Amino acid sequence: MRVLLVEDESRVAANIAAALREGPGYAVDIAPDGVRGADLACEGSYDLIILDLMVPKLNGLEVLKLIRQERQSAPVLVLTARSEKQSVVALLNAGADDYMAKPFDLGELLARAKALIRRGKGLTNPKVVIGDLQVDTIEKYVELQGLRIEVSPTEYRILEYLVHHPRSIVSKQALLEHLYDYNWERHSNVIEAHISNLRRKLSSPHTESCIETLRGRGYRLTLPSPRTHAAALPIDLASDPPNHETKSQS
């Protein structure tokens, strides 16, 4: 998942970004002022925007209004030193999804961030189940047919993004943008390797992998399907029989 953090206090921004990267493993872009934050929010594709209300050049409320005017639907969590009712009402009316008053607990911020991302994807349960596949977005584990599957952190993040977009075609570029910050170009050759490993790990002797590769388009998560063996293939009675020429005997 990819998060935009609009925060001008460098130490606060560094602490929040580190918690998001090291905890849930999100990619984080940091904007030090409202103008840069508005530009990134309107140009990029984010799963969550964390917005400090008191940022320079363009305050958080103005940034929030611009984001919604541009029809950016990413959930927005506002950080504010103002907790009075009138200020909170103005934020919610402008399109904020949640707010936290400063000072705040980083653990609570992470919990709210995860909940907002799930809600933004239309998911209320942290455990996502697709057929025999289960992904726990809180404990960060994967099960297939009731058995725990060991995946690397990057493999997990790829799978988590795919389960949030079931049956949708996800391009390689979309994966890169949501897995890494805006310096993602250096990672552009690793997606195929991680997908290959995931496909191998998410298949069994009786089940094909649930990750489908559509050449030139991207990847799609589907329901796991039974593995078809050549001996079990049905015979097409409507097809022409093989042409075996026989020699006539004189």
Describe this protein's structure.
The chain has 250 residues and is α/β, with parallel strands linked by helices. The protein folds into two domains: 2-120, Response regulator (Rossmann fold); 127-229, Orthogonal Bundle (Arc Repressor Mutant, subunit A). 35% of the residues lie in helices and 19% in strands. It is built from eight helices and eleven strands. Strands 2-1-3-4-5 form a five-stranded parallel beta sheet, sandwiched between helices. A four-stranded antiparallel beta sheet has the order 6-7-8-9, with helices on one face. A hairpin with a 4-residue loop joins strand 7 and strand 8. Helix 2 runs parallel beside helix 3 and helix 6 crosses helix 8 (191-201). The chain is elongated and about 60 Å long. The N and C termini lie far apart (78 Å).
